[in-house]
Structure formats: C-alpha cells, structure tokens
Design goal:
The complex is a heterodimer. Chain A is of the alpha/beta class. Chain A contains 7 helices and 10 strands. Chain A has a single domain, classed as P-loop containing nucleotide triphosphate hydrolases (Rossmann fold, 3-Layer(aba) Sandwich). In chain A, the strands form 2 sheets. In chain A, strands 6-7-8-3-9-10 form a 6-stranded mixed β-sheet, with helices on both faces. In chain A, strands 2-1-4-5 form a 4-stranded antiparallel β-sheet, covered by helices on one side. The longest helix of chain A is centred in the C-terminal third of the chain and has 18 residues. The two termini of chain A are 28 Å apart. By secondary structure, chain B is of the alpha+beta class. In chain B, the strands form 2 sheets. In chain B, strands 2-3-10-5-7-6 form a 6-stranded mixed beta barrel. A two-stranded antiparallel ribbon of chain B has the order 8-9. In chain B, a hairpin with a 2-residue loop joins strand 6 and strand 7. Classes of the chains: A alpha/beta, B alpha+beta. At the A-B interface, helix 2, strand 6 and helix 3 of A face helix 1, helix 10, helix 11 and helix 13 of B.
Amino acid sequence: MTPLIELRNLTKTYGRGDAAFQALRGINLTIAQGEFVAIMGHSGSGKSTLMNTLGCLDTPTTGNYLYQGIAVEQLDADQRSLLRRHALGFIFQGFNLLARTSALENVELPLLYRGLTKRQRHQKATGALASVGLPDKLRNTPAELSGGQQQRVAIARAIVSDPSTLFADEPTGNLDTATTVEIMKLLTRLNAENGITIIMVTHEDDVAAYAKRIVRITDGLIASDKMNEN
Amino acid sequence: MFTMIFNALLIALREIRRNLTRAFLTVLGVIIGVAAVITMVTLGQATTKAVENQISSLGSNLIMLFPGAGFGPRSASAGVPNFSETDAIAIIDQIPGIDSVAPVKSSSLSTIYLQNARKTPVTGSTVDYFKIGKWSIDDGRLFTNAEYRSGAAVCIIGTTVRDELFTNKENPIGQKIRLGKASCEIIGVLASKGQMGMSNQDNTIIVPLTTLQRRLVGHTSSRDINMINISAMDGADSDSLIAEITSLMRQRRNLQSNQENNFTVMDTRQIAETLSSTTRMMTMLLAAVAGVSLLVGGIGIMNIMLVSVTERTREIGIRMAIGARAREVLLQFLVEAVTLSCAGGLVGILLAVAFCFGLGSLINVPVAFNVQINLIAFLFSAAVGILFGYAPARRAARLDPIEALRHE
C-alpha cells in the first residue's frame, strides 16, 4: 500500500550565497494513514519548515515529497491550494479564526471554496461543530468564546471538509493545562474514531505524549523517530 | 467559473457586512460623485429643454435685430451704435413679407409704490410689441396707439412686479407707481410667461416707447433703440428675410464691404440654438467637475482597499491555508471593490433622483429621468471599482501564505 506521506532526502534552503541558511538538510520520513505523529524540536531546529512543507504551504529546495503518491514538489501554487482544500486541514497556535464572524460561518469557510450549496454547508458545519462539542455556539463570534472553545471551532473548521490529514501547529500553545487536556483528548478521539492522520508540532513533552509516534528534529535532521511507549 | 464568481460575491458580501461603517465611508466618494454627475447632467438638460420650449413658444416667425456681433457667450457689443426708430420704419417699408416691427428700448429703473421699492427692467415699445412677443393681458388693458403717440404716463406690469410691490394683495389697476423720474398709472397686468433660461420674464414693466423716452429717462437721443422685434408674415422665408434685413442694415449703418456686421439678426430657431449651446456648455463643465469627484471617490476606494489588504493579511493567510487559490483571493477583493462601488453607484442614483426633483421644482424646471446618463454613471462607478480595486486585489493575491499567517 502507498504510504500517506513519503519524504525522500528533503532539503530546504532559505536565501542565497553567503546568506543561505539550510533549514532542512535531508529528511527521510514515511507516515502511514491513521498515524498520530508529534514533531518535536527546539526553535530553529527546522520543525516549522518541515510542517509547512508537509502542509503543502512551502516547497522543498531538493528531494521528493509524495502525498498519496502525488509528487508535491512538482505542483504549482494553485495545485497545492487545491490539494490543501481537498485533503488537508490546519489548526494553529493562535486559532486564526475570522474576527466578527460567527462560529458557523468560520466553519463553513472551507466549504465555500469547495462550492457546496448553502444547505450542504450548513449541515456539514453544524455536524462538525457538534462533533467538537460546541453544538450550541453556532452564532457566537470568536470574541464571545473562550480560548479552548475558539480552538474547538478551529478544529471543526479543519475537519469539516473531511481531510485525510490534520496539521496542528502548537495547538495548545495558547491554552491553560486543563484546556490543553481537553483539546488533546479531542484530537486523540478524532484520530482514533475518524481515522484522521494527525501531524502535530509541539515542544511540550506532555502534549507530545498524546501522539503515537514522536519525531525529534535537530539542526534540520531527524535525531530520533520512535513509537510512543505510553 | 460562474461558481467561483458567485462564491467570491458571497464571501465579499460577508466581508462588507462585517464592517458596514467602513464600507459606507469607503463608497461615500462614489455616492457623491455619481449623484453630482447625474444631477448636473439632468438639470442641465432640463434647463436646455425648457429654454428651447420657451423660445419656440414665441412662434416661428419672430426675428430679432440687435446691435453687436453675435449673441450669447461670444457676443461683442461694446461701443457699437444702437438703432433708431427710423431703422424700424425702414424695415417694414422696404422689405416685403414683414408683418410688423416693434422698436424696443430697455432700461433698468427704480420702481416705487408706497414703502416698496425695487429695480425693474422697463421695456418701452409700440403696440405691436405685445403681438410679436405673444404677450397677453391677465387683468386691465394694453396701451393704445393714441397713448403711444402722446407718451401717456401709463404702464403694464408683470406678475412678479405686482407680487413684490402690492404686498397687501390690493388690485394694482388704476394705482400710480413711481418709475424712474415720473409717476405712471398701472393699466394692466401681463399674463405670466414664467422662466426663460436664467431670466424671469414676469419681472418686467412695459410702457409706450415715447413715455420711456420723454418722461422716465432724462435725455433722449435718436439712436436709443436696443432691439427691434420683427414678425414675418405667415409663409415668408425666414432665411431670405434675414438676408434682406442684413443688407438693409449694412447700408443704413454705412458699413463698407470689408467691414463685419456690427449687429445681429436672428430668428427664433437660431436664438434657441445659441441659448441651448450656452446651457449645454455649462452642463458639460459642471458634469466634468462632478466627474472629477467621482474619480476622487474611486481613489478613496483604492486607498481603503489597500489598507484593508494589509489589515487583513492574516485572514488572507487563513484563506490560502484552507485552500483558496491566488485567483480566488484576487477575485474576492476585486468583487468586494466592485460590489462596494456599484452599491455606491445605486445609492448615488437614488440621491440624484431626489436632488433632481427637489432642485428642479425649486428652480421651476420640469425634470425628466434620463436613463442614459444614469446608466453611464452607474457603469462608470462599476469601472471605478474594477480600476481601483485591481491593485489592492493583486497585492492580496500575491501574498505568501506562510508570511501572511505569521503577520500580526
């Protein structure tokens, strides 16, 4: 079976000449459908670059990136947009919801670009909000929601289009301990019950502990890659 | 493609609804610009039409003769001699096809009745003046030939003069008013003729020419006629009459063949054309000024849209991350700008309709809804949206999603 994600000798260099900085220096990584991977590393280790590349927001300088067998490094910006639209979901540390826009409309946003009818949008968005435990907050704007609730809306927005992979960039970075546990349990459940592959960047060990596999990055290279024993 | 535009419209409308105050301030310039352009053109055309109607109501066989070359905006009348009464007599005696002539002398005189005083344009002429100018009487009577010959102290006033002097609503017939140097008895009130272009035809007093010359204005010279009104017989060819009057007057004014006419002969059609070319010129000028304000309104849209792209950088990043293509971001911002400017155009049209009918009734000009100019102004406002919305939209579409997401 084709793995979901396959990186072959991936490098990424920023800048040119003397100012060039190699953020990724030859990454080989294979992720199968249904995995829950935590990518860890210090700041500047290259984990964000790896995340952006995996999320098809950025392109590698050299090497290959196969997503479900598609050579991502050969896609142009529009094709990568379409890949993100149909197969990927994102959640961010800062939630990144649209201000002054209701939770429902925020969740409907990806569906607008997929050209669904109003009825379909409403149905799917309501379902997604219910599955993250916010069935009664459809009309609330981000300012009226707590941090944990905002991240739940963001998760609903990420899963509403049924992506095969969910990318989470420090998803609990702005949350307190109790809320962190809630959000991580939600992600674990989505991974276990819906079979969504989750790739999460974090620098906290107790957050990474929820993942099934932990990949550590140091200086643009994979330092360790092991299954989580817990 | 259609779904893409429809989606962009949907997204743009959500964006506009999210910030209605900003949207309103953004398009205020376009609203004012469109309203100004439509109001100027509509009122200008209405005025032109009104002038043309007024003049053609004078009848097609009226010919006017006045000193100076040209008439209207390019006239040159300084230092040119007036006519004499014998000129008028010569015209009717020597040119066949002329029905009647009326020499006219005008003067602005102080007019006093009891405590009410004003300046009024006073016309001195013969009895034929009423017939040629299609004046009719509302109350009282016209002056007679006998009164003309004797220079009787009688006058006929227009309705505006009546309303301003006789504020207590008493009957003016038989009352005496002071006109310049003498006192005159009011024997009639003219029927209202209304506005002609910018001048109020009811603001007038008509007296026998002899009365104006001998009693009201101090000294007289034989050359004191400002204008000669001529009416052609029915069926006479106006162009050939104009040619004959021209050659007669050249001869009587001793003009050599290398000298240009120092007088003008015009029939009603030519007068109408000259007057409407004046109002048309004014209309064009005002519409051009209003057009500049529409352009400034467009720059306002571009300004706000550019600020809004910077302000919404992170939002653009989010949209790109969840799969919006560059062209969809471009379309969203472009559609937003066009939607705003079109909405501004529509509001401007509504405002213009209110302005036109309000101002039209104020200056007494019947206003007609002009589909053409409304359409042009609306399309122009849409074009302004595309023109000035494109640069900000392109800037938004060119953002790098990673940078945009990091933007604070």
